[in-house]
Fold this sequence. Notes:
The chain is of the alpha/beta class and 363 residues long. The protein is built from 10 helices and 9 strands. The chain has helices at 2-17, 29-35, 97-101, 130-143, 160-171, 190-195, 214-228, 258-261, 294-299, 323-349; strands at 39-42, 52-56, 67-73, 109-113, 148-158, 178-182, 202-206, 236-240, 276-280.
Amino acid sequence: MKKLLCLFMATVMLLGCFGINAFAKAEPDWILELAEKFKDGVGPEVNGIKIDYVSYTPEKLKSGVKYPLVILIHGMGQGGKEREQIVNNNFPAFAGKEMQSRFTNGGAYIFIPRSDESKNPTGTWSNDEVEPLYEAIQQFIFANRSHIDTTRIYIGGYSMGGKMTIKMISTYRKMFAAAFPMCPAYIPSDAQLEEVADMPIWLSCSKYDILAGYYVYGKDIWEQICRITKVPGNCRMSLLGKVCFPDGTKTDSNHHVWFASSNDMFAQDGGDYPNMVTTDAKGNEVKLVYPNGLISWLCSFTSSYSGGDVEKTNLVEENDSTVLDMGKRMIKAIKFMLRDTLKAFNESHFGNIDLKAGLDWSK
Length: 363
């Protein structure tokens, strides 16, 4: 255990030396104003754990009309105190007027739970929190049953929240109509993905993210999805290069791919999101045409879920990564990033001269 902790600390120090930050800068005022519209709640206790959350209810609910529910799961480092899960990740943007107007019936409930890191210092979103999170979601659905469309429940999360997204959909498959894991820090088992083989999944990650990017986890996950899914035309992957904000300025870290998702995959002017290419699981490029992005994709899918308890699988503890595995993946990712950088430099300056010098980059 001491060796693993030393490796973890060494990795953190290495990331610091490269200026790589897992967290975003402070949110602009308009995001903080939207965050104030989220109300506090707490789920029932399950095995000694309660999941607190913040939620947004569509404004001016119409009688007899039901709205989708979107569940957003934060990453490591944003669960230390209450309401921290909507700071520095742009999640409140989903409650903005423009974003809300794109959902079915002109609005959506937003549910953002928190993993209390003060009680779970070894990490975010442990296996013990899967069932308490499920019960918190169930409680919220029941409390808003007259206006939540249970056939349109969507879930997404970034980094460790992406890991929790995969665990939730593979454990409680029937509850969710579609999922959008963002730079998930996790490699699911084939059994987990086979459980959701009929589910539309939109994966996003950056090839320059050494925390949980394409070469660390995303490439392997996407290859699994392409191999296992029964709905390849409905599954997508958005691969980003250098990660930018919607206005084109660079973020603090290439780990911050959630800014693309929280802006519905479009730039600030409604054009292509900077440095991003989207493909489906058939290998076809998907051209996103404003305003049909992530939200319209989500709302095009429904489930047969009508509420109530969902049968639980036994897949929650499948394939958990170790710190050692994470470290190995990061080192491998750095190698591939160097390869891509050298290749780009070679092509732009030397007309694609062979600079490999006998190195086998495939290993």
